[in-house]
């Protein structure tokens, strides 16, 4: 069976340069509406992955995202938001991009084609069988990612993939393949569009649900968020006011003393 990259197929729209701005925006918006439905179809695989991650994370495991270009940047983005949002150490969720940090802002020539570098990039972290490595590639064919997943499997490490094409080479390598088939891009082959949007949604779903399962949320609130600015200090203070029914200034004093909403609430239970 021949593998066909749906994400690389011609756009359903043509003569884009002849369209008005309004037409372009409406058409892009119509295409974007398809993304959530595509993600919905992948929910069983996402759920399976989250349960596997939680089981491993409770034993000290970590999440590694690996990708190139837009896919790599989205993995790094999701990983970078976990410490401020949930108060987790940065070592719990790690994003790796082909070409290293330089590639976050500028393309690195041939980085995604290096079949050895992905596994090498994992070595400084002491990768082990408690960890989970998630490859992200719209095409499902990125050599940097596929080779790393293959090596991970040899070492008993759980692997997963997020792609926009069914039955891709990356899907066949991964233990859990998440296939979010959003169809051709508005600008042919521009996977930063629908594919990137879907990847961001799935990464959000994975880490948010994992963090909730790991006890980093109470009710619907980020009780372990980092107090990195005045807005977040105010938000945390109001959480404490609501939970403990104490004056605002006293709640703020306790928050700054203990460092997190969760710590204040735990102290109040004693």
What does this molecule look like?
Helix content is 49%, strand content 9%. It is of the alpha/beta class and 270 residues long. Helix 5 links the parallel strand 3 and strand 4 (158-163). The protein starts with 20 loop residues before the first helix and ends with a helix.
Which features characterize this protein?
single chain, 270 residues, alpha/beta, 5-stranded parallel sheet
Layout of helices and strands:
Blueprint: H1 21-41, H2 43-57, E1 63-67, H3 69-86, E2 93-97, H4 117-122, E3 132-136, H5 143-154, E4 158-163, H6 169-173, E5 176-179, H7 194-213, H8 230-244, H9 248-258, H10 261-269
Parallel strand pairs: 1-2, 1-3, 3-4, 4-5
Q: How large is the radius of gyration? A: 21 Å
Alpha-beta content class: alpha/beta
Shape: globular
Helix content: 40-55%
Q: Give the uncertain stretches in residue-range form.
A: none
Give the spatial strand order of the biggest sheet. 2-1-3-4-5
């Amino acid at each position: 069976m021949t593998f066909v990259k749906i994400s690389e197929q011609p756009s359903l729209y043509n003569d884009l340069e002849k369209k008005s701005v309004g037409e372009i925006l409406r058409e892009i918006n119509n295409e974007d509406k398809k993304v959530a439905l595509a993600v919905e179809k992948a929910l069983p695989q996402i759920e399976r992955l989250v349960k596997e991650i939680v089981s491993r994370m409770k034993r000290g495991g970590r999440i590694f995202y690996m990708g190139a270009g837009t896919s790599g940047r989205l993995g790094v983005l999701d990983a970078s938001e976990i410490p401020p949002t949930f108060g987790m150490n940065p070592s719990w969720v790690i994003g790796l991009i082909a070409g290293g940090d330089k590639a976050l802002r500028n393309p690195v020539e041939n980085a995604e084609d290096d079949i050895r570098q992905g596994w090498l990039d994992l070595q400084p972290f002491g990768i082990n069988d408690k960890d989970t490595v998630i490859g992200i590639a719209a095409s499902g064919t990125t050599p940097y990612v596929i080779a790393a997943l293959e090596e991970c499997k040899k070492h008993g490490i759980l692997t997963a993939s997020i792609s926009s094409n069914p039955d891709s080479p990356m899907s066949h390598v991964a233990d859990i393949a998440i296939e979010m088939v959003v169809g051709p891009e508005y600008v042919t082959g521009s996977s930063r569009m629908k594919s990137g949007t879907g990847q961001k949604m799935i990464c959000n779903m994975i880490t948010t649900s994992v963090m909730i399962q790991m006890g980093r949320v109470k009710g619907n609130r980020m009780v372990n968020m980092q107090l990195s600015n005045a807005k977040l200090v105010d938000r945390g203070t109001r959480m404490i006011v609501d939970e403990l029914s104490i004056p605002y200034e006293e709640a703020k004093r306790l928050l700054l003393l203990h460092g997190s909403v969760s710590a204040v609430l735990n102290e109040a239970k004693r």
